[in-house]
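step=predict obj=Acetate permease n=535
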Amino acid sequence: MTAHHPNHGLAVALFAVVVAVTLTITVWVGRRGHAAEDFFAGGRDFSPLQNGFALSGDYLSAASFLGVTGLIALYGYDGVLYSIGFLVAWLVVLMLVSELVRNAGRYTLADVLALRMRQRPVRAAAGLSSMVVTLMYLIAQMVGAGSLVALLLGTNSGAAKAWTIIAVGALMIVYVTVGGMRATTWIQIVKAFLLVGGSVLLTVLVVARFHGDLGALMETAARRSGEGEAYLRPGLNYGSSALDRLDFVSLGLALVLGTGGLPHILSRFYTVPTARAARRSTMWAIGLIGSFYLMAIVLGLGAGAVVGGHDLRVSNSAGNTAVPLLALDLGGGDGSTWGLLLFAVISAIAFATILAVVAGLTLASSAAFAHDLYARAWRREGGRQVSEREEVIAARVSAVVIGGLAIVLSLYAQRLNVAFLVGLAFAVAASANLPTLLYSLFWKRFSTRGAVWSVYGGLIPAVVLVLFSPVVSGSKTSVLPGVDFHWFPLENPGLVSIPLGFLAGAIGTWLDREPADEDGYAELEVRALTGAGAA
């Protein structure tokens, strides 16, 4: 079943409303502040509740709304396991990262590292790593936008997807260059509200369809998936061989450890006034994200039971269109007014989700470029300092370039599952950013060489292993299906690249003849734990 209905103009109109509202917010907020603190940190005056909504808005991307629910609909138990990894990751953020990062940094991850290390090499490494992670994440969101709009227009043509990706790229460039962090945060808050509201509505409708009997829902999903009992047991997607199980362990590691190293999540902690506010906003985010993933399980099973595995695969082989198709069916099916209305509303919410997340990602990426690379890493010691105004201009220019690059790369990755693509971004973040951040905050001896080795020691293996994995070549669903140059058997590199990141940091520190800056560590410790001297 696909939406080849002539009235898809309604859904397109709702998309236009989403775009109009987000652009209005951007223009209205963008007039209010032009200082670097406004552009990169939104003026640091958001409340914990506002930032909690914005954090969940940043985190609940197309991967969660479209990708994870699609995986649950197609693979049952194994898809549910996927969502657990995304949620458990927040405990790492809460316990180890949120307050300390808020106190120790200013705008970016590299600010935390540069407090006790030599500025230039550390900022160059951390800035580059942040840009790689955000670019991989961006590609996933834009692929999701392509499949969503193609479904909406009742077409599977490459041209429709390509133009959608170009349009989303253009919009995200406008959001970032005009509105900065303040506008991006308000867009996230609106989007999180819409996403949770839409999910509650669909969950209630799914439970009502099965008269509150969740057992019947699971049995019907298993029967209509075409997989029978295997659907409700582990191993359908990740269990046919030892290699598959290893791949799942690799993915789980990447999801649980990656969140604490995602640049667009870390930069969110700088938008609140204090470390206590950062911790409280993390608690709000955990509540909102946890509630969403519980509903995602019901929605995934609902899509499997109501739409059926066969129809889901016909519409999109990776399952990215499960939620809009479920909405269409729950409202009365193809051709019904309510079905079309619900389909249009849910598709518009998914589109708002994508727009908000790409704005946050582009901002984090342009901040890494302007604040870390352009203003500091590429400057000679003792040379002319870049003014705050020049830094903001550089960030706006880089947002245009990054947006263009993301558009081009997204056009080549349209066959891949969105949640899976995000798993790769998490693997790079967990391999390169998290080891460096944890060592810097908790290891007194950690040195500049250790920090640089840790970033590159995780980043390079992660990227190389992805390039030579079945994701890029060697199978029908690869980015390049016609060729085969893969030699790394796992689809997610986390199992290998995350330990390498930690190991490289330790070896680099042990081999560094230059002693660690003990005074710098003492200052970092006091600042991170008490907030004394924090921005």
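step=describe
The mean pLDDT is 84.
step=end
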